[in-house]
Write the structure tokens for this entry.
Amino acid sequence: MSDTWTFVCATGELLPGEKKTAFDDVTGAPIVVFNLDGTLYALEDKCTHEDFELSAGQVDAAEGSVECVLHGARFDIRDGRALCAPAYEPVARFPVRIADGGVWARDDRD
């Protein structure tokens, strides 16, 4: 597990309803950070069904979900769980913090 935080963007660059991507500085994992009504959530930027970027998908702020553009799998932005087929496995969820005027995330998996 890495203790190194990856800079995603300046806090002013991630407004409610927006998302930003980065790659973990240590593991290289793709990360997407969502601003859902002012609360930040980070997921691995990879659909568990077909290994495609979730950041390319449409966000449903009311449901708190993101839909993969490839086959329509939806995931809960808050906890990464799969909401419908064809995905059954959750997406990895990562910690997010705001520090030094920026948004930071990290792949905290062992």
